[in-house]
Amino acid sequence: MTSGPRLVLLGKQGSGKGTQAARLAEHYGGEHLSTGAILRAAVEAGTPLGLETRRYMDAGELVPDDVVVRVVEERLSDRGLRARGFVLDGFPRTEPQALELERILVDHPLDVVVTLRVPMEMVLERIHRRAVEEGRTDDTAEAVARRLELFELETRPLLELYDRLGRLVEVDGVGEPDDVFKRLVGVVDERLA
Ligand code: AMP
């Protein structure tokens, strides 16, 4: 079996990361792993995981590292999934999560970590539009502000970490989704070559 790329897509809320992660997973034949989507599904289904995480999500706070790491480790322990490749979306978000991910992947390290660069005013406009169109209940103004703040505090340092490891690529996230997607595939293919 040929193995697909193992990717991480890092970006602020509203950067278009979720849409692009789904498209990349489809393009490369791997799994789209969105921790936000997994957690939202758990909340909707009222599972113990959902009951445990709901209050963090509604407030825009980060779910504790050990809880999210457990969720990701469970998915990534599937050897078939690891072999097909994956696109992680919304994970890792903190340095401890990034270190745990390195541990989980040991013999199948990440190929590329891509970060989408999008200016703040564009991010805010997209989040507002999505809140209206999709009616996401965790997109209150306070939760959005807190999520963006936590991106700067907790997730931004990961860019430096992955840059040091030589895995980081920055992509301009401004423009039509099709154009952004082409840029993403371009840099990923270049890295894989
Ligand atoms: P997202 O859909 O990625 O914006 O995630 C929605 C919410 O789920 C976040 O505001 C957090 O409460 C929670 N969440 C998702 N991924 C993580 C993560 N890697 N670490 C901590 N909390 C997370």
Spell out the key features of this protein.
5 strands, globular, 9 helices, binds adenosine monophosphate, alpha/beta, 193 residues
How large is the share of residues in beta strands? 5-15%
Distance between the termini: 18 Å
Give the total of beta strands: 5
In helices, the fraction of residues equals 55-70%
Shape: globular
List the helices and strands and how they pair.
Blueprint: E1 6-10, H1 17-28, E2 31-34, H2 35-45, H3 48-59, H4 65-76, H5 79-84, E3 86-89, H6 95-105, E4 112-117, H7 120-134, H8 141-164, E5 168-172, H9 177-192
Parallel strand pairs: 1-3, 1-4, 2-3, 4-5
Account of the protein in words:
The chain is an alpha/beta fold and 193 residues long. The protein is 62% helix and 12% strand. A five-stranded parallel beta sheet has the order 2-3-1-4-5, sandwiched between helices. The longest helix is centred in the C-terminal third of the chain and has 24 residues, at 141-164. The radius of gyration is 16 Å and the shape is globular. Residues 13, 35-36, 39, 56-57, 60-63, 68, 90-91, 93, 97, 147 line the site of adenosine monophosphate.
Can I get a quick summary?
With 193 residues, this protein is α/β, with parallel strands linked by helices.
